[in-house]
Amino acid sequence: METVRPESFEGGAVAPGAQGRPAPEARVHFRVTRFIMEAGVKLGMQSIPIATACTIYHKFFCEINLDAYDPYLVAMSSIYLAGKVEEQHLRTRDIINVSNRYFNPSSEPLELDSRFWELRDSIVQCELLMLRVLRFQVSFQHPHKYLLHYLISLKNWLNRYSWQRTPISVTAWALLRDSYHGGLCLRFQAQHLAVAVLYLALQVYGVEVPAESEAEKPWWQIYTMDTEIP
Fold first, then answer.
1. Is-contact 171 205, C-beta < 8 A?
2. Are the C-beta atoms of residues 34 and 181 closer than 8 Å to each other?
3. Cα(207)–Cα(32) distance, rounded to whole angstroms?
4. pLDDT tens per residue, the chain (230 residues)?
5. CA 55 → CA 37, 38, 91, 109, 138, distances in Å?
6. What does the domain layout of the chain look like in residue ranges?
7. Quick one: three-class SS letters along the chain?
8. How far is 125 from 39, CA to CA, in rounded Å?
9. Which CATH class is domain 6-133?
10. Which candidate, 5, 128, 4, places its Cα nearest to that of 60?
């Protein structure tokens, strides 16, 4: 299977860890999921397919040692597979060209030579490997629909001035996106992640939910009853 590290693209390079030591696994996964997110945006992927790609990536490396396979190859295959899962199909050629441009901003699209076809075949082979390792369980429930529901509810709950003067919604969405840099998406239920980023956004701006001190239950507990949102 072809190795697709950044240096595999012409002119690409990887910054070494401190004093030349390899970066810890968490830092590697952070960098690679950042690559997934930025490449996904350039490919025109929506939020859910990008979240699925990150989740597939993290779930794969929960089963497989990081040293066993090239993380950037797994990332590219995760993008390709997520596009199929979420019905936003992507061409492997586009994924390869966007990845090449990501590592080499001034480069031209790769020629359709033997190198290109080796990269393409590696993505397809890696996709099949990932499906086997994950036992074809690549559909996930994401926090996005829960967060949208909670934000609409909270907007009607807070006074208009508090909502308009603080970017609670923007911050909550940004926190949710950033949570996919790690494995939180696999460790916690979707609705719990949604209410957690909303709670943190409120804490950042010091916004209090009306009548919280008099309520029998905290506001966030009402949102985490593990009920399905249609």
1. yes
2. yes
3. 34
4. 545 555 555 444 343 444 445 458 899 999 999 999 999 999 999 999 999 999 999 999 999 999 999 999 999 999 999 999 999 999 999 999 999 999 988 877 788 888 889 999 999 999 999 999 999 999 999 999 999 999 988 888 777 777 888 899 999 999 999 999 999 999 999 999 999 999 999 999 888 877 665 656 777 777 666 544 44
5. 12, 15, 20, 28, 9
6. 6-133, 144-223
7. CCCCCHHHCCCCCCCCCHHHCCCCHHHHHHHHHHHHHHHHHHCCCCHHHHHHHHHHHHHHHHHCCCCCCCHHHHHHHHHHHHHHHCCCCCCHHHHHHHHHHHHCCCCCCCCCCHHHHHHHHHHHHHHHHHHHHCCCCCCCCCCHHHHHHHHHHHHHHCCHHHHHHCCHHHHHHHHHHHHCCCCHHHHCCHHHHHHHHHHHHHHHHCCCCCCCCCCCCCHHHHHCCCCCCC
8. 20
9. mainly alpha
10. 128
